[in-house]
Prior knowledge:
This protein is α/β, with parallel strands linked by helices.
Amino acid sequence: MKQFVRLAAALAWGVAFMLCAGSLHAQGRESGVSLSQPNYATPDNYSIAKPGELTMQINIWGMINHPGRYEVSIATDLVQLVSYAGGPQPDADLTEVKITRFIKTESGVSRAQFLVNLNDLYRVNESSLVLQPGDTIYFDRTNWSTIRDVLSIVTTVAVLTASVTTVVTYARNH
C-alpha cells in the first residue's frame, strides 16, 4: 500500500510539473518569444540601410520571429520590414496587423491606429503599406492559438483530477 501511495504521489508531481511546463510554454508563445532562445528577454536593435542613406526607426512587436527596433531606409514598406524581421510566427494573426502612428498636429500629438490585412495583400491599398518614422507594428495571436492553449491546460487539469480520483478510490478499496 505504501508503494502505491508513493507511486501515486510521484504521478501527481509529474502531472503537476507537466502542467507548469505547459503553462510556461504557452506564456512563451503568447509573448512572441521562444523559451529555447538564450536571450529571449530583450528585443534587438537592427540597422538595415546603406551608409549615407536616409533612415527611420520602426518598432515591430508581437508574434514576429525577430521583434525589435529596426532602422531602415525611408523607402521600406510594411512587407519588407516583416521580411527583415524574419516573418510572422505560425500563430500570428495576419488579418489584423496593427500599426500605431503618432501624428503631430497644431494642438499637440495624437495617436492613430489602423489595421492592415496581410492575408489579402492583393486587396490592400498601397498607401497602407507605407511606413513613417516612429511607427509601431504589432502582430497579435490568432484566436485559435489562444483556444488551443486553454484546451491544453484544461486537458492537463482533467488528467490530474482523474489520476487523483483513481488513487483515492484505490486507497479506499484496499
